[in-house]
Amino acid sequence: INPFGKTLWEGTWSSGSITVNDVSKYSLLEVTVTGDIPILAYNDGSRVRVLGVTGTSSQNFFSGYFDVSGNTCTFGAIARLVHTASGNHSAAVTTWSITKIVGLVPYWGS
Q: What average pLDDT does range 73-77 have in this prediction?
């Protein structure tokens, strides 16, 4: 496999299952969500957990997951919570899609 930046899948995904070739070979992924926002994700072998923060004066907290079985990925959720500096946070918005999955760090043996 090509470590450190192989595009595994591109499209628009917000429900159901898709095929992502080689996804189970990577422990660390970059998942891009709606609006071209790249977020790191960790593959524990059965679930990919997405967690990241963007922004400066307001922080956008992204979290979510999708399940993995071989090359089949089943969408769980992607949510964003906005927190304004010295202020409050918004309600979680769950209408986000995954638009790209990139393999970053492969599993290096067992």
A: 96
Distance, CA of 73 to CA of 60 (rounded, Å): 25
Give percent helix, percent strand, percent coil of the chain, each to the nearest 5: 5, 65, 35
Residue 62 pairs in a beta bridge with 52, 80
Q: Write down the residue that tokens 């202020």 correspond to.
A: 87
Predicted pLDDT of residue 110: 54
Residue with tokens 């990241």: 52
- d(Cα 13, Cα 22) in Å, to the nearest integer? 17
Can you spell out the DSSP letters for 20-69?
-TTGGGEEEEEEEETTTEEEEEEE-SSEEEEEEEE-SSEEEEEEEEEEEE
Confidence class for position 3, pLDDT limits 50, 70, 90? low
